[in-house]
Amino acid sequence: MASTVSENVKKEQDEKSWVDYIQKDLPQHLDAYQSVDQITNEIYLGWFVRGLHKTSVDLMILFLFFHVIRVFITRAYRTPGELKWVSGSIVLFVTLAMGFTGYSLIFDNVSYWGMTVVTNMIGTLPVIGTPLLHLLRGGEEVSGVTLLRLYDLHTKLLPVLLGGLVLGHVVIVRLLGFAEVKGSRGFHSFYPEHTLKMGAIAAGLLLLIVNIVMIFPPLLGPPANVQEVASDVSPPWYFSAPFMWITLLPGPLALWSLLGFAGFFVVYPFLDRVLDERGWPMEIVNALVAAAVVCAMAGLMYLDTLM
After folding, report:
1. Is the peptide bond before 126 cis (omega within 30 degrees of 0)?
2. Global pTM?
3. Among candidate residues 222, 244, 252, the one with its CA nearest the CA of residue 296
4. Distance CA 75, CA 69 (A)
5. Main-chain dihedrals φ then ψ at residue 139, nearest 5 degrees
6. Please, are residues 162 and 132 in contact by the beta-carbon 8 Å criterion?
């Protein structure tokens, strides 16, 4: 009897020490994955709330792209509207940063390796690359500290920055006025015409988002595994084309070309002014450039689905 009791006590002690060992060595950053898994699969309607958040981000970025294309084709950035374009461009980039940080916080295997690839590319920048890499990661490797920093960016710094930028963009648009676009409507009152129209659009979008979430609920892949590269590290659709671009080209060339395109995108109104003064048919040029960029992005996104 005494030997049986001692064996049970020893077994309990061994089990406790094994649990303590696991808890001690378990990467703390997996807690992020476990919390998302709990929200998705255990909390009542947690999957629905997460789906609303994800789908809203997707639609926000989609409509931002539509807005950029419309402004570009109609040349609504013309003098004195260059500042409107520059401020709107920064809003777009910060919104994409919000999408990246939110996507990374899931910390499944796909988002982990996607985050690793992106931060590695940032580290290749001359002079500022290594300090910026350590600033984002909080060290040499992606870890729990990295998640804490991305969490602070996603929930604190970037929302405040984005709110201020959107407010500044609206103020700039109101001060500089709207560009005259051929075929656009004339003046219409803010209330009730504009208010009712925006209310109807908002209600329709809410209905659309709810239906999308119900039909395509959010998924969650396996947890991050530092020893096994994910078979599909494809990022969200709005990063699909740049991701395919950096996959096809050598690292430094891909990074510098993306940075060059971003800079060219921001200063394009000033180039438009110069070319327009020299007699270039900018309406036709913009239409061709927009078509080429959209086709290139669609082609890269299609290639990404095949990889």
Report:
1. no
2. 0.84
3. 244
4. 10
5. 160, -160
6. no
- Asked if 24 contacts 102 with a C-beta cutoff of 8 angstroms, the reply is no
The C-alpha atoms of residue 236 and residue 98 are separated, in whole angstroms, by 12
Residue 161's nearest CA partner among 174, 172, 173, 152 is 152
State the pLDDT at residue 19: 37
Residue ranges and CATH numbers for the domains of the chain are: 2-179+189-306 (1.20.810.10)
289 residue type, one letter: V
Euclidean distance between CA atoms 220 and 45, whole angstroms: 15
Range ranked top by mean pLDDT from 24-33, 118-127, 241-250, 271-280: 271-280
Residues pairing with 223 in the sheet: 108
Q: Considering only CA atoms, which of 213, 222, 223 is closest in space to residue 47?
A: 213
Mean pLDDT of the chain: 84
User: What's the rounded Cα separation, in Å, for the pair 153 and 69?
Assistant: 28
Residue 223 backbone dihedrals phi, psi, to 5 degrees: -65, 160
CA separation (Å) from 142 to 23, 31, 263? 20, 14, 28
Distance, in Å, from the CA atom of 119 to the CA atom of 105, rounded to the nearest integer, reads 14
Q: What tens digit of pLDDT does each residue of 232-279 get?
A: 777 889 998 988 898 888 777 888 899 999 999 999 999 999 999 999
